[in-house]
Amino acid sequence: MDPAFADPQTVRIAAFLAEIGIPVERADLPGRCFVPGIRIECGRLLVDEARMTYPGDLLHEAGHIAVMTPAVRARRSVDISQNMGDEIAAIAWSWAALTHLQLDPEVVFHAGGYRGSSAWFTELFGSGNAPGLPLLQWMGLTFDAPTARARGALPFPHMRRWLRETPAPAPDEPIDKPADIG
After folding, report:
1. Are the C-beta atoms of residues 37 and 22 closer than 8 Å to each other?
2. DSSP alpha helices (H): ranges in 76-117?
3. Number of other CB atoms surrounding residue 152 within 10 Å
4. Distance CA 105, CA 122 (A)
5. 20 to 30 Å CA-CA from 63: which of 74, 81, 110, 177?
6. Phi, psi of 34, deg, nearest 5
7. 24-39 average pLDDT score
8. Residue 162: CB partners within 8 Å, gap ≥ 6?
9. 166/51 Cα distance (integer angstroms)
């Protein structure tokens, strides 16, 4: 993590991301970025702080990196949203991250994002509903409430780990089906 960021929120978020294994580096990004001032580059976030609009966007973009398998994470760059499953998993991951950091939900779910659905996501997650949770659980990152109870663990938004490690749970780690999926 580059300590030269000016905004305290950016510094805090970048420190957390570096701690969990997602490098955040200052960069000049003169071209168009999918998210203003932020580019994903082979498992790291490049940040042009002068062009970045919302520091919370770092958590959403980091969510995309976090839910990739290590092999994909090492080679994928620029616009990484490949499908709706990836997107909803990144949204749920970013909710867990902002909860972990004790940030106001509007830091990530700001009025300028999510195609006008930020308030809806905040209400949804705030009420205990978590779209994307089945994917995060399948990836081995967290547990739904029934599985967490059965294992004596904390449920989502607590994360067992922050980065996906394998394409699917390891052979010695059973796939935990969410309680509402048959």
Report:
1. no
2. 84-100
3. 6
4. 6
5. 177
6. -55, -45
7. 90
8. 20, 21, 66, 97, 141
9. 34
Cα first-last separation, the chain: 42
What mean pLDDT is reported for the chain? Answer: 88
Rounded to 10 deg, the angle between the 84-100 and 118-126 helix axes is: 60
Taking the C-alpha atoms of residue 98 and residue 109, their distance in angstroms, rounded to an integer, is: 10
The CA distance from 111 to 88, in Å, is 18
Is residue 81 very low, low, confident or very high in pLDDT (cuts 50, 70, 90)?
low
What global pTM score does this model have?
0.87
Residue labelled with tokens 């580019």: 39
pLDDT score at 79: 57
Per cent of the chain over pLDDT 90 is 70
CB 91 within 8 A of CB 131: yes
CB 21 within 8 A of CB 164: no
Closest by CA position to 59, among listed 29, 11, 35, 95: 95
Side-chain-facing half-sphere of 143: CA atoms under 13 Å: 15
Q: What's the confidence (pLDDT) of residue 76?
A: 80
Spacing of C-alpha 97 from chain mean position:
7
Q: In whole angstroms, what is the distance from residue 32 CA to residue 30 CA?
A: 7
CA triple 23-24-28, angle to 5 deg = 135
- Specify the pLDDT at position 161: 97
